[in-house]
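In response to reviewer comment 3 from the previous cycle, which asked for concrete evidence that the modeling workflow produces usable outputs, we include below a single protein chain processed end to end. The sequence was submitted unchanged, and the resulting structure tokens are shown without manual editing.
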Amino acid sequence: MKYLVIIEQGPSSYGAYVPDLPGCVAVGESRAEVMDLIHEAIEFHLEGMKEEGQSIPLPHSYGELVEIHA
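The workflow returned the following structure tokens.
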């Protein structure tokens, strides 16, 4: 499965979250680090859901870039 990951650059770090998995977040010092961490977070999140007997949500979020001429 492929889940959409949103990455946000802050003043001193990067944050990432998964819209289809509420509460699944990561923070890192670089984009590469936050991507490694969110990958681990997704796996951990899904393992926890399985252990609790919850169904795994199918990915349903998508992203698009919109170009604006200003």
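The mean pLDDT is 97. We consider this sufficient to address the reviewer's concern, and the full set will be provided in the supplementary archive.
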